Amino acid sequence: MSDLLAKLNTEQLQAVTLPPQHALILAGAGSGKTRVLTTRIAWLLSTGQCDPAAILAVTFTNKAAKEMHARLGALLPINTRGMWIGTFHGLCNRLLRAHHRDAGLPQLFQILDSADQLAAIKRLLKALNVDDEKFPPRELQHFINAQKEAGLRPAAVDVWDDYSRRRVELYQEYETQCQRESVVDFAELLLRTFELLERNEPVRRHYQRRFRHILVDEFQDTNRLQYRWLKLLAGGEPPACLFCVGDDDQSIYRFRGAEVGNMRDFEREFQVTGVIRLEQNYRSHGNILDAANAIIRNNSARLGKNLWTEAGAGEPIRIFEAFSDSDEARWVVDEIQQLVRDGALRADIALLYRSNAQSRVLEHALFSAGIPYRVYGGLRFFERQEIKHALAYLRLIANPDDDTAFARVVNFPTRGIGARSIEALQDAARTWSTSLYATVPHLGGKPGTVLAQFVRLIEELRRETARLPLPELVDHVLDRSTLRDHYKSEKEGRERLENLDELIAAAANFTAEAQAGAEALAADHALLADFLAHASLEAGEHQADQGMDAVQLMTVHAAKGLEFDAVFVSGLEEGLFPHENSILESEGLEEERRLMYVAVTRARQRLYLSFAQSRMLHGQTRCNLRSRFLEEIPAPLARWLTPPKPRGGPGGGYYEPPRGAFAPRAQPAAAQALPGGLRVGQLVRHARFGTGVIIAAEGSGSDARVQINFGDAGIKWLLLGVAKLEAC
Ligand code: ATP
Ligand code: MG
């Protein structure tokens, strides 16, 4: 232990060894906040000030929770598994399972992730014959979540006209539907737990007495309800010590209701006297840190701090301008190969992007080059179509009233149940206020007969799997549901089959972990319900845990709190990063800048920044100006790998490509022969995209590229030297 403390600097040591009191550690990226928080837990335990059961630690991601477990396990000779370390959602799930009756839920309640929630809302609107142009499902979803995050049930929401009244009615209907189906969305996890603690004195007292030290990482991103939740738990007699660490410059979830104001309220309401600041950065080399400082300095709303490091300046930041997104991806791959040849571990390299949609091109390039990679978030494993189908069967076994799951697989794989039958079922379920599943036996006629077969299948599955270990259970369900056969017969089904196998592996992993943990599981299928909760909560993070040396891909949001030797941030273009939705208002822009600050400060030794002149995104080719954030990096810190061009564009602002920039070019030049004897207007064939027409051409020699309309496969820019086009 003293070893551990010896490595801390004065301020860190002060923070770790604060006497039992509330504390706020406000510090910049890489200054050791998470390390201080973990070390404080170790210090509290090893000095005998409390036992592991008295600690509640809130992390921002499941990955961070796992790391904290691992670090504590390494520091102390204790089993950390039973400790309450997790995300807000994970901790709430645990509380609700333990007190499900008090919370008005069945033990095997299911969790809706946001895609499930949207599907449930769409289903509701349809059943109620609501015009979804007037009440777009996504907006309604956002509204409902915002109310829940503000702690407001329908009865407490203000209404002022017919529209707002109707919207609140829909919120109420949605709640009724969720309750009937025994499902809980993410916001509900929190609100339900909060209400449980608030209303149920014995339960509240129990946890208030139990948790003597509550520690929160990434405190700047807590929302109002989470803050109230913490306040409630810490507010016993005597109160618990609340130890929060955060960085206002890394607040990147305001769009989800996070409030930096919580930091000020915390100081005031808890009379925090000692706010400790850490300013020495231990993560990044000087150039990287200076760039981060220079970028964030452009924000106005800051609590203000500057980071410094003892590490030398290190290498310059590398900046690359690509022709196109695929050109950019190829460059990234080349650089990665070079890094690996130079001895880098792939797992120490991260590719970060602003939007999930950007990962596809990068993935493709990595895959083609045979470089192992893992995607965090994004096309999340548990969100893939085939996995969702399999999970829906599993969910029906655990909870037949889960209408979302029912609707998903009642006719998948197809078993001759038509839309009419399902509509008849939905109408009847509505009339009787029962779940779809429970309604089936009461439905007559042909719909009743075909649907009864499906219900029988689920009943049989439930019986057959009651005593099976979880991985075998999953395996059995994949067979009996005929999901496996279905994907076997699908042309592109190989990858999906692999993913289904991966689901069995995930179930095996989960079982091993659950057995290692102390928790006893009584009811049949209780482990299944836990696994399903895990699938909803840990979506995507599972992949990166396999200990394989793989390049890490993730959005900047998902990278928060993490660090890597080499970091690539691609797509630094106006409209993409900063994102077009935020560009027009200063608050949005400041949040984008904090996001850029997070991205840059993930790098230890090397930082690569890139942008592309043209990019295919959501099926459209876009030409964007390079990001203003690149301009904010002082020139001496960076090295351009491509000669920097003047930024241009009207007023340096967001640049719309001139209309017709990609229209067929009718100039005589277009008729000139291109390398390979091709011409604009000519029909060509490409191995992957099929047949298309060349509609534009640019550049010459090895830079010559053409724009081709491939019909269904879209319009693409291809480099002639690379694309291997065949004239037809
Ligand atoms: P972020 O804001 O990105 O979450 P953080 O403030 O939580 O960053 P940590 O992740 O705790 O920072 O620490 C950054 C890196 O610096 C880690 O690798 C950590 O081990 C290291 N570090 C922190 N303090 C020290 C120290 N006193 N001596 C050596 N290394 C340190
Ligand atoms: Mg941290």
UniProtKB/TrEMBL annotation:
The record's CDD domains line, in alphabetical order, gives:
DEXQc_UvrD, SF1_C_UvrD
Keyword annotations from UniProtKB, A to Z = ATP-binding, DNA-binding, Helicase, Hydrolase, Isomerase, Nucleotide-binding
Q: What is its EC number?
A: 5.6.2.4
Where in the numbering of this chain does the UvrD-like helicase ATP-binding domain appear? 6-285
Every copy of the UvrD-like helicase C-terminal domain together lies at: 286-561
Question: What reaction is this protein's catalytic activity?
Answer: Couples ATP hydrolysis with the unwinding of duplex DNA by translocating in the 3'-5' direction; ATP + H2O = ADP + phosphate + H(+)
- Catalytic class of the enzyme: isomerase
- Pfam families noted in UniProt: PcrA_UvrD_tudor, UvrD-helicase, UvrD_C
GO molecular function terms listed in the Swiss-Prot or TrEMBL record = 3'-5' DNA helicase activity; ATP binding; ATP hydrolysis activity; DNA binding
Residue numbers binding ATP: 27-34
Q: Which InterPro entries match?
A: DExx_box_DNA_helicase_dom_sf (IPR013986), DNA_helicase_UvrD-like_C (IPR014017), DNA_helicase_UvrD/REP (IPR000212), P-loop_NTPase (IPR027417), UvrD-like_ATP-bd (IPR014016)
Concerning its family, UniProt says: Belongs to the helicase family. UvrD subfamily.
Q: Can you say what this protein is called?
A: DNA 3'-5' helicase
User: What is the originating organism of this protein?
Assistant: Pseudothauera lacus
Q: What is the lineage of its organism?
A: Bacteria, Pseudomonadati, Pseudomonadota, Betaproteobacteria, Rhodocyclales
